[in-house]
Amino acid sequence: MKNSRKLMLAFVALVAVSVSVRAQEITPPAEINALLQKHTCLACHKAGARLVGPAYTEVAKKKYTNEQMVELIYAPKPANWPGYPPMAAVKSIPKEDALKVADWINSLAGPAKKGGHGKSGHGKGGHGKGKAA
């Protein structure tokens, strides 16, 4: 009986670790991946895990609007990301590209709530209010 409990606990632990690893293995769509490579974002960021900078999933949790995120690419605010080295301003990214990347990052937070941070970048209902990275 004890052996079957140990086996069951080991199995549950293995499944939990497997799910956790899969959650970090997020592959951006081809168009977004091309933009991330083109603008060297992948040198410091990964979708589901910390690299030099925060994971895109962590950025998504901040609930920035797309417009706020673009502004933070152009003029980062390191005080909002303690524990990470300051991000260099990346003003060479065309706004259209930055908005596409921002929209994808926000999609990692799950479905937007009504009045959320959609493509317009003008969130309602508390999304991004008073926050800047």
Mean pLDDT: 79
Structural class: mainly alpha
Number of strands: 0
Distance between the termini: 53 Å
**Low-confidence sequence ranges:** 12-23, 113-132
Percent of residues in beta strands: under 5%
State the order of secondary-structure elements, H for helix, E for strand. Answer: HHHHH
Question: How much helical structure, as a percent, in the residues?
Answer: 40-55%
Describe this structure in words.
The chain has 133 residues and is an all-alpha fold. It is built from five helices and no strands. The radius of gyration is 18 Å and the shape is globular. The model is unreliable at 12-23 and 113-132 (pLDDT under 50).
How would you concisely characterize the structure shown here?
With 133 residues, the chain is mostly helical. It is built from 5 helices and no strands. Residues 12-23 and 113-132 have low confidence and may be disordered.
Please outline the helices and strands.
Elements lengths: L1 H23 L5 H9 L17 H6 L4 H9 L20 H13 L26
Helix pairs in contact: 4-5
Keywords for this entry:
133 residues, 0% strand, globular
